[in-house]
Amino acid sequence: MRFNPRAEISVHDRQPPRYRSLGRRGLVCALSMALVALASPAGARAEASLADIKATDYPSLTDKELGHIRRMVDLSRQLPGDWSGMSDDLWSVAERTQQFQLAYMAMALALVQHQYTPAYRELYRESMYELIQKLTNPDIWESWLNSSRAGTAFADPDLGDVTRGWIDPIRKYNIMLKGYLLQAGAMYEMLHRDGVFTKADGFTFKYQPFTWGNGPVTFRYSLSDVANIVYREFVDGNYEGVQCEPNRVFPACNQLPILGLLTHDQIFGTGYAKDVMPKFSRAWVEKHYTNPVTKWNVRHIYVKQGIREEPGTPVLDGWAGSWMHAWNPELAASIYAGQKEIYLDKFLSGEYAHNAPAPGYSEGNRTLLSLGFSQFAFMAAEVGDTEARAALLDYAEKNFGPVWKDGAYYYPRSDDYAPDANGSSHGVDTWSGNVLLALARLDKGGGFLKMYREPWGDKQLKAPQVTHIDDVTTSVSQAWYDDKKDALIVTLKPGPVAARRVKFSVQALDPAKSYSVLKDGQLLGQAHGQAGDQAGGPQDGVEWEGDGSAQISTDLEREHTFIIAANE
Amino acid sequence: MNPSPGTITIRSKRCALILLLACAPLVHADEAAQGLQITGCTVFSERDKSISLDCASEARKSCAGPGTCELPIGLNLTGGKDPDGNPDTWELVRVEFSCHGIARINGPHYQNDHATMTLACQR
Question: Which residues of B fall within a CB distance of 8 Å from A221?
Answer without folding.
Answer: 114
